[in-house]
Amino acid sequence: MSTSIVTSEIAEPYAQALLSLAQSNGSVEPVAQSTAELLELLKQSDELSAFLGNPLIEGETKKGVLQQVLGENPNPNLKNFLLLLVDRGRISLLTPILKQFQALVRELNQTVLAEITSAVELTEQQRETIRRKVKSLTSAQQVELETRIDPDLLGGVIIQVGSQVIDASLRGQLRRIGVQLSATAR
């Protein structure tokens, strides 16, 4: 079995458990917000990710660091959940678990995630246009955007919603023209 399959099989039940806990306390949105902030922190800090994933570091040390990372007024559901992950030896899977949790929350809220890759930073008006377009394509209630900048695109955007990809980039258009030209040259 591949590592990603094993990881997803482990992450899914933990993400489900966190969602159930948040739903039972009526705190889905605050927990979702806290998980988004924690994921962003893990994305920005390779040291924190490596620290939490290191099996040689004791659980109590990891718990202390998590307490510091969460701050003075952490979400109690998330805090207890993270401490449970340390106790169960699953804290190294924190990122996949939190991403799976976010996917479950999006599903619950009828929200789709649109991953946008652009050559330059998008304006708020461009983001709103993309949101409306994705809403009409997917019939979703809400659209969450995750943006990434890739200067190699030259211009335009690539929008990915699930397995569907819309390539409206200049690089993509040039590639399609090249394929058409080589097909007609035969």
TrEMBL record:
User: Where does it sit, as one GO cellular component term?
Assistant: plasma membrane-derived thylakoid membrane
Pfam family, any one = OSCP
Q: Which GO terms describe its molecular function?
A: proton-transporting ATP synthase activity, rotational mechanism
List each coiled-coil range. Answer: 113-140
Please indicate which superkingdom the organism of origin belongs to. Bacteria
Q: Reply yes or no: does the keyword Metal-binding apply.
A: no
What membrane topology term does the record carry?
A: Peripheral membrane protein
- Entry-linked HAMAP family: ATP_synth_delta_bact
Per its database record, what is this protein's job? F(1)F(0) ATP synthase produces ATP from ADP in the presence of a proton or sodium gradient. F-type ATPases consist of two structural domains, F(1) containing the extramembraneous catalytic core and F(0) containing the membrane proton channel, linked together by a central stalk and a peripheral stalk. During catalysis, ATP synthesis in the catalytic domain of F(1) is coupled via a rotary mechanism of the central stalk subunits to proton translocation. This protein is part of the stalk that links CF(0) to CF(1). It either transmits conformational changes from CF(0) to CF(1) or is implicated in proton conduction.
PANTHER family hit by this protein: ATP SYNTHASE DELTA CHAIN
Q: What is this protein called?
A: ATP synthase subunit delta
Q: Which organism is it from?
A: Vasconcelosia minhoensis LEGE 07310
Q: What is the lineage of its organism?
A: Bacteria, Bacillati, Cyanobacteriota, Cyanophyceae, Nodosilineales
Name of the coding gene? atpH
